[in-house]
């Protein structure tokens, strides 16, 4: 397993927690050369790549009138271009090894109108479209590679904590079925990713998995 983060220290912390030979690499997902170098390192160390999870995320809180072009480009460089670059450079190695699974992290921000998350929603909408295009391409070219997208609602993560003005302050998430408006736990998303990465989802590609506790189905 390989864990990447924009800082090696953060990636190494997670890799150490995983154990079992997990490797850590620093990766700025907005840099094409960084992706090329990372994929090369993965091949040199492990010889193949079976699963890619594009999960890097940033947020700028601003609507279309308030957002600067620099903010918009930064958010999309990470979450739109980053997904593009990851898929572009991972697919050849995946195909070389006989196939695999790509899981792209989108968001309910791509499905609903959130004025203050304009750039974020734009990037996640791009992820939605790219996922479908990549899934079809892999089938047409005969690659045994599936590509799916996950659309989380509000999950108790550092990004949500920042957006709510409580950076670094974690709130507990109850067990069991949650009421409307409750935040989910990271494991609620991890379990869907695990399914999509596994052979149990072999008949699933180009699909959208909305994990939002019913947020997007409500008429009010």
From TrEMBL:
<dbReference type="GO" id="GO:0016491">
    <property type="term" value="F:oxidoreductase activity"/>
</dbReference>
<dbReference type="InterPro" id="IPR036291">
    <property type="entry name" value="NAD(P)-bd_dom_sf"/>
</dbReference>
<dbReference type="InterPro" id="IPR051122">
    <property type="entry name" value="SDR_DHRS6-like"/>
</dbReference>
<dbReference type="Pfam" id="PF13561">
    <property type="entry name" value="adh_short_C2"/>
</dbReference>
<comment type="similarity">
    <text>Belongs to the short-chain dehydrogenases/reductases (SDR) family.</text>
</comment>
<dbReference type="InterPro" id="IPR002347">
    <property type="entry name" value="SDR_fam"/>
</dbReference>
<protein>
    <submittedName>
        <fullName>3(Or 17)beta-hydroxysteroid dehydrogenase</fullName>
        <ecNumber>1.1.1.51</ecNumber>
    </submittedName>
</protein>
<dbReference type="InterPro" id="IPR020904">
    <property type="entry name" value="Sc_DH/Rdtase_CS"/>
</dbReference>
<keyword id="KW-0560">Oxidoreductase</keyword>
């Amino acid at each position: 397993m390989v864990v990447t983060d924009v800082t090696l220290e953060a990636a190494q912390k997670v890799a150490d927690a995983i154990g079992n030979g997990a490797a850590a690499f620093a990766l700025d997902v907005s840099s094409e050369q960084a992706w090329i170098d990372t994929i090369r390192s993965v091949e040199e160390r492990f010889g193949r790549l079976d699963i890619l999870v594009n999960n890097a995320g940033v947020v700028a809180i601003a609507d279309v009138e308030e957002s600067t072009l620099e903010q918009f480009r930064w958010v999309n460089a990470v979450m739109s271009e980053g997904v593009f670059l990851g898929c572009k450079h991972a697919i050849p190695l995946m195909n070389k090894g006989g196939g695999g699974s790509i899981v792209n992290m989108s968001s309910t921000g791509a499905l609903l109108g959130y004025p203050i998350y304009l750039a974020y929603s734009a990037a996640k909408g791009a992820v939605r479209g790219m996922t479908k295009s990549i899934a079809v391409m892999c089938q047409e070219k005969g690659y045994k590679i599936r590509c799916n997208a996950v659309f989380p609602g509000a999950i108790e993560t550092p990004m949500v904590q920042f957006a709510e003005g409580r950076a670094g302050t974690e709130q507990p998430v109850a067990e069991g079925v949650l009421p409307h408006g409750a935040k989910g736990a990271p494991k609620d998303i991890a379990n869907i990713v695990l399914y999509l990465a596994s052979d149990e989802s072999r008949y699933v590609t180009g699909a959208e998995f909305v994990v939002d506790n019913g947020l997007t189905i409500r008429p009010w």
